[in-house]
Amino acid sequence: MTPKIARFLRESAPATPCLVLDVDRVEENYRRLQAALPLARIYYAVKANPAAPILERLVRLGSFFDAASFEEVEACLAAGARGAAVSYGNTVKKERDIRAAFERGVRLFAFDSEEELAKLARAAPGAQVYCRILVGNEGAEWPLSRKFGCEVGMARELMLAAGEMGLDPVGLSFHVGSQQTTTAAYEAAIARVAMLFTDLREAGVKVRLVNLGGGFPVRYREAVPEIEDFGTAIMGALAEHFGNALPEIIVEPGRFIVGDAGVVQSEVVLVSRKAKDDPVRWVYLDIGRFGGLAETEGEAIKYAIRTPHDGTAEGPVTVAGPSCDSVDTLYEKSNVRLPLRLAAGDKVELLATGAYVTTYASQGFNGFRPLAEHYV
Amino acid sequence: MTPKIARFLRESAPATPCLVLDVDRVEENYRRLQAALPLARIYYAVKANPAAPILERLVRLGSFFDAASFEEVEACLAAGARGAAVSYGNTVKKERDIRAAFERGVRLFAFDSEEELAKLARAAPGAQVYCRILVGNEGAEWPLSRKFGCEVGMARELMLAAGEMGLDPVGLSFHVGSQQTTTAAYEAAIARVAMLFTDLREAGVKVRLVNLGGGFPVRYREAVPEIEDFGTAIMGALAEHFGNALPEIIVEPGRFIVGDAGVVQSEVVLVSRKAKDDPVRWVYLDIGRFGGLAETEGEAIKYAIRTPHDGTAEGPVTVAGPSCDSVDTLYEKSNVRLPLRLAAGDKVELLATGAYVTTYASQGFNGFRPLAEHYV
């Protein structure tokens, strides 16, 4: 929690649940990533947090943007970004959304299938397109399975087809999974991309861009490698596989830019036990999986929780959200311990919750309204 | 899909994704449940779908309401319900919400813990309270684990304490899990409640209410027992365990009342393969888990999907939502087969999606707005 956030919580005592996010920390993270990967263009993954104060600050810093939908393209333009600074990075797009983005100046699009390529050729003629390939997601705490990307053999055919369809097959992309905690995942993916790159060049395709995706991790409860470690590993792998003929490099960080810039404050609604002698207490917060903490699904992302009683005696707890739905349980198997003095009415803070929270919040599950947002 | 919904889709061609719900079907379901359980008071579980046209129709039918939050209490009152017709059934409530509901005339509250009972005694003095006990959820497709309810021994102590605190410990509740496909779950739970009931009466507590919860299933892809079968089994179990001294009976149906009254229409955004010879196609819809289809988590609720090509040759598919998140995949292991002719731009219908969809929708995940709602 940054001093600015602490001061805001202290002085404003906002209603809970709420996110308080320090936009200066966003800038610091952006600059730090830039220093760690000086050759890369940074496309902020808008989906991590599309709030205007974040986008506006990043526009001022010269950032590029990765949009998942036409609505996100619009949000970038509204914040002052040029269309040419936006990549439409979802491989799954409606044709009318491609057209609308193209009309606003977006010139870079992702694809991973024949049908999508046909849509792009019709709705964004001549645009730069890159093909997303499937790579391993080992080491990612929020892996991306096989939903996006295609096999290398198909990627090769599609890149050749793209040129024939009047598009500019500019490069390749991959994603090692979000909250990726190992640098090896990038190294393996770069090796895979480099082989296809060479192959495509030999086939006459003027590929010149590698999109490394995002995935850079944030510290939750456990330490993660520093961004500088990722920078070193990535630059090493690029040098190894591309030599001096480095391609243009794109990265699409979301979590890394905004994750540790935000804190969710929540009120404890109830602390109870299922039986009198049960050692495990249930702690119910006024925010849960449907209130924005969707990444606690399967207990994947383990947020650190601060309470007003930290430092006093603790005991094991199950942490749950406020709704009448049992899947709205945050942590049951993750060995969370909280102070024995914790009681209804206490305010607690979930740290590093600046990414993938606000927009996930349901519009009114069980009647609960989405969390408030404060950008300081 | 009812004829009214089919006509609306045909004549209005609404933008997708959207829910179209036939309020007359809500009334039919309400009357059918009333006929199946004539001795029970029906408290509609507002969380299943809190839309005003549904609540208003149910108010006219004389329904009672089960609210999960103060916001849902307000929705019932706005629809014309009396405060006395509303039960505040969430065992996890902020004290100020209890007070606000009590001030609006709500007189029936759930609890399952000591801390909650203390809040109720302070904020709703003299109110009727019922204790939720833990029961098995075998047979439920959306089970409720241990998040709500307490062990019988603790329930006994809390019911005794409630009287001493000036509350009216009116009865007991349980929940066999949502989309419960076996009648046996209710029979076992009733037996459990009846024992505690007798025990409490002997201890001098004037218990007189049994809240059977909800859980009555809707037909998705597979057939489920008819509501009349549940009625017969429940009345049989009540007669067996309570004899002629039947308690007041409450049921809290949500899914059963609105589930098959609604249809979600969605547009196919992309059909693709991961490799050229891959037999499985990926079908991406413009609604997914974060757009309202949250109950497809773990492929729990298996919606039937109608396409314009039904009856033509089919093949295996993975069905996913439109967002850049892999967990936004609906069906990967459920052996869904869809027509080979399905393509981007086709409209498909997800049947029996009237419950637990609209309010689950995220407010803007990946920039996608919540689905539209049409009540006809």
Secondary-structure blueprint:
The structure is a homodimer of 376-residue chains.
Chain A: H1 3-12, E1 18-21, H2 23-36, E2 40-45, H3 52-60, E3 64-67, H4 70-78, E4 86-88, H5 95-103, E5 108-111, H6 114-123, E6 128-132, E7 140-142, H7 152-164, E8 168-173, E9 178-180, H8 184-202, E10 209-211, H9 227-242, E11 248-251, H10 255-258, E12 262-272, E13 281-285, E14 305-306, E15 314-320, E16 329-331, E17 337-339, E18 347-350, E19 372-375
Active site (chains A, B): 324 (proton donor)
Domain Orn/DAP/Arg decarboxylase 2 N-terminal (chains A, B): 24-259
GO molecular function (chains A, B): ornithine decarboxylase activity
Describe the 3D structure:
Two copies of one chain form a homodimer. Chain A contains ten helices and 19 strands. Chain A is of the alpha/beta class and 376 residues long. The first copy, chain A, has two domains: 204 residues, Alanine racemase (TIM Barrel); 116 residues, Lyase, Ornithine Decarboxylase, Chain A, domain 1. In chain A, strands 1, 12, 13, 14, 15, 16, 17, 18 and 19 form a nine-stranded mixed sheet that branches. The first copy, chain A, starts with a helix and ends with a strand. At the A-B interface, helix 4, helix 6, helix 7 and strand 12 of A face helix 4, helix 6, helix 7 and strand 12 of B. Chains A, B: Pathway: Amine and polyamine biosynthesis; putrescine biosynthesis via L-ornithine pathway; putrescine from L-ornithine: step 1/1. Chains A, B: Its cofactor is pyridoxal 5'-phosphate. Chains A, B: Keywords: Lyase, Pyridoxal phosphate. Chains A, B: It catalyses: L-ornithine + H(+) = putrescine + CO2.
